[in-house]
Structures are given as C-alpha cells and as structure tokens.
Write a structure and sequence with these properties.
Layout (H helix, E strand, L loop, with lengths): L1 H22 L1 H21 L4 E11 L14 H16 L2 H11 L5 H14 L1 E3 L11 E8 L2 H58 L1 H12 L8 H33 L17 H20 L7 H93 L4 E7 L12 H26 L6 H8 L13
Antiparallel strand pairs: 1-3, 1-4, 2-3
Protein name: Lipopolysaccharide biosynthesis protein
Keywords: Coiled coil, Membrane, Transmembrane, Transmembrane helix
Length: 472
Amino acid sequence: MTDRYTNREAGNILREIIFIIFYHKRLILKIAGATFLLFLALAVLLPSKYLCRAKFSVSMSQQIDPLQKDVYTDSKNQYMRMLSGQKEIILSNRVLMRAAQALYPGKTEAEYQKLVAKLGKDIEVGPPKGESFEAASDFILSFDDSDPRMAYNMVKEVSQAYLAVFEEIAKQRTEYSYDFFKQQVDSLYVTMREKADLLKAYESENALALVDILNLEGNKANAETGAKTQLNAVQTKRQALREEFVGLERTIADLEASMAGDQGPAILPDMEGSGKTITAYRYKVAQLRMQIQEMDTQFTPQYEPLRRLKQELEANIELLRNETGRYLEGRRIQAESITSMISELDLAIAQLEDSLRATAQLRSTYAFLRNDYELAKTAYAEASAKLEQARQANSLSRPDLIVTLVDPAVEPMTPYKPNRIGLAVLGLFLGIFLGLSAAFTLDFFDHSIKTPEDIERWCDVPLLGSLPHSGA
C-alpha cells in the first residue's frame, strides 16, 4: 500500500514538472534563445588572442670562481631561488626597456616607461603547466596579443634581451671577482713585505742572541750550556755555601762562648787531628789536670811541685786559648770568604735571571714576528691561488648558472582564445538552465488554478467534472 502511494506521488511530481515546462515553454525558449544569442555574439565578436611562448632551462655549472662558489645542501630551494631570480631579471626594467626600444623605436623616454610598465603586467614567467618553481628547473616566457606577429616579436625580443643581460651580469660578476682578489693580493703582498722587513730588521739587531737561541732549539743535547741550566747550578752552589756559612757561624759562636770561660776553650771535633798543635795542647792540658787532681788529695796547695804543675797548666791553657784564637780567626776569615762568594753568586744569579728574562723576551718577540710573517705569507699564497682561479673563470667567462633557450619563440598560427565553440555550447546550456530556473521560480510564486487537480488541492472539495475550453 505504501509503495503504491509512493509511486503515485512520484508520478504526480513528474507530471507536474512536465506541465510546468510545457506551460512556460515560451518563457523558457525566450530566455534560452536570448542567452544563446548573447554568447554566440560574444564568440563571434570577441577578438582572437594568440599566445607565443619560449622555454628556458636552468642548470648549475661546476663553478671555479672562488667568490661565486657556494655550498648548497638543499638543491630544491636552490633551484627555486635561481628560477625566481631569473624571473626578476626578465621582468626588470633593463630587459623590458631593450625589448620596447627594439619593437617601438623613436618613442620618448616617458612613453618607453609606460610601455615597460604595461609589458611587466602582460608578460608572464612561470614554470611549466602543473609544476612549481620548487619542483622544476625550467621556466616559460609567454605573451599574448591579438596580432600573432606582435606576440612572436615580443617574446623573441624579450628572450634575446634577457639572454644578453644575463651574459652581461655573469661577466660583471666574474670581472668583479677577479678585481676583488687582485686588490686583495696586492694589499696582502704589501703587508707581507712589511712584516718580512720587520722580521729581517729584528734578526739583524739581535743576530748573536738569536744564533744562540736557534742553536739551542736545533740541538737539544747542548741544552746544559743554556742560561737556565747555569742558573740552576749557581743557585745550588749558593745554597751549599749558605749552609756552610750557617755552620761556621754556629762554630764561631760556640768557640767565642768557650773562650770566655775559666776552663779553657772547647775543642770541637773538626779542630782535632793527628799532628795538629791544638790536639797536642789538649792532651797536655788533660794530663796536667789529672796530675793536679791526684796531688790535690795528697798535698797542700803550697807544695812546690803542685804549684809548678798549676803554673804549667795555666801556661798550656793560655797556649791552647791562643791556638784556638788563631783557629777562630781562620774560621772568621773563611766565613767572610763565604759571604763574599755568596755575594758574587747573588750577583751572578741576578745577571742570569736578567739574561733569562731578556732571552725570553727576545724569543717571544722573535716568535711573534716570525709567526706574523708566516700568517701573512699563507694569506698571500691563498689569495694568489684564488686570484688564479678567478683569472681562469674570467678567461672562460663561466657563470655559476647556465641558461639554455630550449624552445625558441615560434609565430602562432591559431588563436588560443576565445574558444568560440565552447562559448556557444556554454550559452546554449546556460540559457536552458536559466529558462528552467525562471519557469520553476515563476510557478512557485504563482498560486492561480491551472488544472482540475488544483481545485481539489487548494479548495479541498471533490471534483465532479470539467468542461473543455472553447475558443467561442
């Protein structure tokens, strides 16, 4: 039941659509005809446009010019920058002015500027169809005009002007590179000569000292003859003398203290020895003291032999004191001699330290001047090598980019627009669509009764019958 009702409703809608079309057929035909005639007139009256193209290919050369040599890791962005740069060159005033002067001779400067501005808008430079500058290494120069000969001449002249300007720019870059390195080499040569003169003058002024320095640097086996080794030896000797002087001072102090006592001077170990007078006096004094000690227990002090022994003891002690005094005087003289030697060594140490400081200063200055000269020499050699590369690049006139005219301009034989058949077909279908749209829109806003079924729909009363329309 439901399917039958649905099919019935669909049939009613289809009949209503057909009715609307036939009811407004005159309106549909008028609108469709007018639209078709309008587009047909456009297809006939619109002027023909002829498109002329020239295709260029860009490739990178193996650059030997050091000033133009770049290291790229992203070739995609590199080509995009290069192609964008070529587009800027083509649309530059320099290229378009040459083309305008070739095509339109005899005009004023203001007229040429207007032509260049118009050409900058009309000329198109882009990658092949369906590609972008990021994915292509080619680009197309295109221009359209109602005159096929003018379109061809324009593309041809712009292409020739572009190639000429590109070569001029490339040549200027290589010439600039050569001039740049030429100036740099000349400047570095003057700098190198100045540093060489400074080094030579310094070597002449300090020839003897530099000979010793260079000999020591070249033969390490003779390093012990250097001032540093001599300074170490002198300092070691001074330390030994200083220790000996301190020992002598202690000995002199002890002897002076013992000389002031009643018991006689003390006999130090280094004062004794076989055959020495002090040793003989010491033994004599010791024997006399032993004899006096034995007799003191047996006899009175007035005993003549005991008294003579005491007198002899005092005489020997005096002799021992005199001999010790001579020994003490010798040690004082020795101490003074050591003091004098230490003073001489201090003077020698000061001289050696001054010599070391002077040598270090000399070595440092010489090393600085020599290193400065070597750096200048290396910089001059590197700049000379780059100058030679720039000279070769200049002689070869080898740019970093190679632009090739792959497809030169060809005079077009057929227009590329307008598409007359397409315009006529578009006008036909658009007219039908507009006519149908107008018919359905008019019917939607028209509530008048046109069919017997409209009575049941709008009046909600049953239809009993109908009379045909009579022309009488």
